[in-house]
Amino acid sequence: MMVENIGRLARRILLMLARGTITLVDDSKTVQSVQVRVNALELIPDVPRFAEYGYTSNPPAGTQAVLGAKNGDRNDVIVIATSNATYRLTGLATGEMAIHDDKGQSVYLSAGGIIIKGGGLPITLTDTPKIRAETPLLECTGDIVDNCDTTGRSMAADRVIYDGHDHDVRNVQGGGSTIRSDPPTAVE
């Protein structure tokens, strides 16, 4: 009897942790659930996947998962960690961290400063009344477009318009009079 109990306990301990591959993700609920293939015979559906507060992701199929089974019961399993070596950023120095996805987008907190990569996709800031940049230098390597969704003109094109225009000065008077020109108008 004692040997039988020890054997049962040993099996439960062996079943407490497992490694598998995510095959399907349901991200429609408050707690994400995944389907995980542990081996050729074991496919576990509807496994809750918990994440650290403030971080969320939808791991692609093929992502590795570490499973924890309460009391070694494979009917009471949660995903406690995930990793996908295909997309993992490498070469980070001690103390550095990054968030990233499978599209090449990332926010990298490097020892030399924060690096944001858009992966060739647009970066959109929304729902903010103000953007403030407290920096002595703001460098843009491309041409800045003012009111990009309306005029479509770059600041360089506007500068050519401004530098190349003049105004008639009406009612010129001699002596110490001060005459102001008309305000500039956009040249189409």
Automatic annotation (TrEMBL):
UniProt region (Disordered), positions on chain: 167-188
User: Residue limits of the Bacteriophage Mu Gp45 N-terminal domain?
Assistant: 19-84
The molecule here is called: Prophage baseplate assembly protein V
- Lineage, please? Bacteria, Pseudomonadati, Pseudomonadota, Betaproteobacteria, Burkholderiales
